[in-house]
Amino acid sequence: MASSPLVAATAQSACLGVASSILAQALTAYNEASNSGKPVSLTVDWVPVLQYLLYILISTPPNFKWQQLLESSFPAYPATKEQQTRPEKQADADAKADADADADDSAAKPGTQQQQQQQPLSKANTLIKLLLDQTLAAAANTLLYSVFAHSLRAAMHPQPALASPLDALRFLAGQWSSSSSSSSSSSSSSGEGPGPGPDFARVRWEAVWEAAQGEFWPMLLAGLRLWPLVALLNFSLIRSVQGRNLLSGVAGLGWGVYVCLAAQ
């Protein structure tokens, strides 16, 4: 059974998000080795990897729906006036004719599809989608990530470094303890041991919101160096939301590395 476009897009973004988080750790290890003159040694800390994966799983579905809403509201290739004013009876007759056509007549259908694909790109709709996506959506995504990252970081402080994906998953689920695992490679500098998992009761939400506001403009302006170009290519060249999500995911691989490095 084929998966829905939303599920496929979320899975695709999740894989790229995991890759970007691991790549960020690899770049950090390489830079540290270059500065110290020691050989590169990489041990993946799976806690931040799963943190970023969780954010991807939360943020991808609403962003996918947002892209669908933009395209349905401001289609890149809107129907012509002739198509919009076509009599209902004529449309029914065409549908019946298509249903009754034999195999010899089916050769005419690709021509009809090609004619639809040759409709001119609506520059006005493309501009509207670009502005909405790079203002409303960009601001919402920036705040969402900042609030998510700072609140989760506060909820799980002090945070261990876990080289086992299973231990990291148990930690995030609140079922991990340092006595049951040997994969913890670090602890809090204050000597306080890591707790069993995230505890949002310890989160100071006013501090989280203040931190999110403080990094809002730097992160938003950094995103403006990449995402407007990606959005313009998406809205002008790629017709399907699935294809747009793929291009955004590939661009997001590099953006994810930047975000993960900034979070370290």
UniProtKB/TrEMBL annotation:
<keyword id="KW-1133">Transmembrane helix</keyword>
<protein>
    <submittedName>
        <fullName>Mpv17-like protein</fullName>
    </submittedName>
</protein>
<keyword id="KW-0812">Transmembrane</keyword>
<feature type="compositionally biased region" description="Basic and acidic residues">
    <location>
        <begin position="83"/>
        <end position="99"/>
    </location>
</feature>
<feature type="region of interest" description="Disordered">
    <location>
        <begin position="79"/>
        <end position="120"/>
    </location>
</feature>
<comment type="similarity">
    <text>Belongs to the peroxisomal membrane protein PXMP2/4 family.</text>
</comment>
<dbReference type="InterPro" id="IPR007248">
    <property type="entry name" value="Mpv17_PMP22"/>
</dbReference>
<keyword id="KW-0472">Membrane</keyword>
<dbReference type="GO" id="GO:0005778">
    <property type="term" value="C:peroxisomal membrane"/>
</dbReference>
<dbReference type="Pfam" id="PF04117">
    <property type="entry name" value="Mpv17_PMP22"/>
</dbReference>
